């Protein structure tokens, strides 16, 4: 079966043509740059473990496994680079320093 894909811009949303039907590309942007001051701990809450994994990893995994999500990017605090890197090991996500 041959699939023809043509990318276009529709308004501010990226779309494509697949077998004569328009399909939308879905990107998820997760903001995880907080310092967790209200959490009253030195470790930002997105890096606290829940069931043995950082909260951020649980969130990323949920979106990465969703069948309609094409891309996942995360905005992180540059000061948390080491925490972020260890939290996402093995996951295919983009990173934006912010």
Layout of secondary structure:
Elements: E1 5-10, E2 13-18, E3 21-24, E4 27-32, E5 49-50, E6 53-54, H1 55-64, E7 71-76, H2 81-87, E8 94-97
Parallel strand pairs: 4-7, 7-8
Antiparallel strand pairs: 1-2, 2-3, 5-6
Computed structural class? alpha/beta
Calculate the mean pLDDT score and round it: 80
Return residue spans where pLDDT drops below 50 for at least 5 consecutive residues: 1-13
Strand content: 35-45%
> How many DSSP H or I helices?
2
First-residue to last-residue Cα separation: 43 Å
Structure, explained:
- By secondary structure, the protein is of the alpha/beta class.
- It is built from 2 helices and 8 strands.
- The chain has helices at residues 55-64, 81-87; strands at 5-10, 13-18, 21-24, 27-32, 49-50, 53-54, 71-76, 94-97.
- The strands form 3 sheets. The chain has a 3-stranded antiparallel beta sheet, with no helix packed on it. The protein has a 3-stranded parallel beta sheet with strand order 4-7-8, with helices on one face. The chain has a two-stranded antiparallel sheet with strand order 5-6.
- A hairpin with a 2-residue loop joins strand 2 (13-18) and strand 3.
- It is elongated and about 55 Å long.
- The chain starts with a strand and ends with a strand.
- Residues 1-13 have low confidence and may be disordered.
Summarize the structure.
This protein has helices at 55-64, 81-87; strands spanning 5-10, 13-18, 21-24, 27-32, 49-50, 53-54, 71-76, 94-97. It is of the alpha/beta class.
What key attributes describe this structure?
single chain, 98 residues, alpha/beta, 3-stranded antiparallel beta sheet, elongated
